[in-house]
Amino acid sequence: MIERHNTTPPTGVAQSETLHTALPVEAVAATETLSGNEQIDGLLQAIESQIHYPAAIQQLVAELPSEESTEAGPLWQTFSYINLVRATIDAGHTFTGEETSTTASHLLELVTTLEAENLLAGEIAPGYSPEARERIITLCGEYGEVTAAITPIVAIAASYSRLDYNELQGVVDALKAVANLQSLASRNPLNGQPLPLETGLGQNPNTAFLDAMLQYTRRAMNQLPAEYRTLDPGAAHVRAFIEASQELDAPAIIEKITLISETGSLPFGMTEQGLKEFIAGSVPPPAIEPVTTIEFRAFRPDELESQDPRIIRQGQVVVVDGIRRKIIISPDAIQTSLEGDPSKERLQLEIKRILTHEFGHVLHTILPLPLLRQWLDTIQDSVGNITRYVREVRHTKPQRLNGEEFCDAMDLLVGQPERLMIISPTHLKGMDRIYQQCMPGYKKGLRQTIMSRIETKLALYKAKGISEDTLRQIYLKHELEPPPQPMPRQQKT
Asked: Which of 163, 249, 383, 430 has the most CB atoms lying inside 10 A of its own CB?
């Protein structure tokens, strides 16, 4: 997941009510008639074109956090913010309205810090020495090896909204800052342009900068627990998770969950025993264990992800204190979203579908990261979006794609496995493996039911003269619809 980036200026950066004018007036004025992203990108280019990188890098070396302190100086924070905004645009975030104005103001204010340090519009002096060039190449190689071991682990944790990702936020932020500043260095002095100082290896500020970054990155790597240093599905902590999962008793765990309804009874004629039996028989126990309550009620305004009236929200997982989780289901939203006058049986099926999806969110936040990597590797060659909702998320909220696709695959495995088989056998294979790893008795119980249903349904369709290609076209008809557009971001009032 690529997280929403906070556009508040970093601590220690000067602010004022008037925009700084150190940049050429025409460079700033040229952005005023552009879209939000174009304005921000134009300002970034204007700022970056004015930076005296040799002097900036030399200053950044002095501001790098030490072993005794993890807090960086204002120039480090300034450059990290500039690069964070760039990364936000690259990740597909859309700046609109007030957010554009606020971000542009912050960027222009950062120029104050740069100018105060005499880091604007400088001249680049000649020269790498051969020794310095060799040292820089070596350092870049070592830095790349260290960060390459961390980057995919952090990326998976972020894309699946991991609680452990939040717990490691300090380490992750340090790595982001280092990566952003490494990019800064490689875009300029390390990319074929001459370096300042021809005084040899030890006094070259670029070499010192990379040395410091490498040391800082190694320190961050050492802070990671052992289970976050590998994506090997055969690692000891993964085997321990699978073994522990096989010992869990789903019926006993489900009894600890409290069902709450604002009407005093479960919706659509459901019974507590029937609902709990469905959950225990359909959801891997590791996903059930952290859930304390399931609430059937309308969402409060503060719980809705969007206030847009076109969005009908049905279910949601809520994390409390970073540990306890509750699932909220809105029966009114379910009834409104279904066409016509749905039967009680149809409404009950929809409740179960949404519950399975929401338990999927719990599961992907606790699975060992190597198992999520294994899942992604399994489905990487699939073609198309397995549901209309996954397609909508891919176009409108791509940072949530991995999690929502995982949950819809889990829902289809339990509720419509023949559909998942036709649309994407790789998704079926990947989710089937996760269930085998996490659900006791799955092979002799639920798995036999799933495979029997697939066989029966496909035989029925064949007897009716409906080919698998025809079924695939029916199931993937959402792919022919116009791509959904992101909802406009609401302005703060």
From this structure: 430
pTM of the model as a whole: 0.73
Q: Could you tell me the residue ranges of all domains in the chain?
A: 25-228, 245-480
Cα–Cα dist 128/193, whole Å: 9
Cβ(261)–Cβ(296) below 8 Å: yes
Residue 26 tokens read as: 């025409």
Q: Which residues contact 346 (CB under 8 A, 6 or more apart)?
A: 338
Average pLDDT along the chain, 493 residues, taken 10 residues at a time: 31 36 58 79 81 71 66 74 75 78 84 80 54 72 76 82 66 63 53 42 59 73 77 94 96 94 91 96 96 91 66 77 81 83 90 95 93 96 90 89 96 97 96 97 96 96 95 93 67 33
CA distances from 477 to 302, 384, 423, 489 (A): 35, 10, 11, 29
State the Cα–Cα distance between residues 359 and 411, nearest whole angstrom. 9
Query: Distance (Å, rounded) from C-alpha 311 to C-alpha 121?
Result: 49
Q: What is the CA radius of gyration of the chain?
A: 27
Report phi then psi at 325, rounded to 5.
-125, 145
- The amino acid at residue 119 is L
Question: Mutual orientation of helices 401-415 and 425-438 as an angle, nearest 10°?
Answer: 80
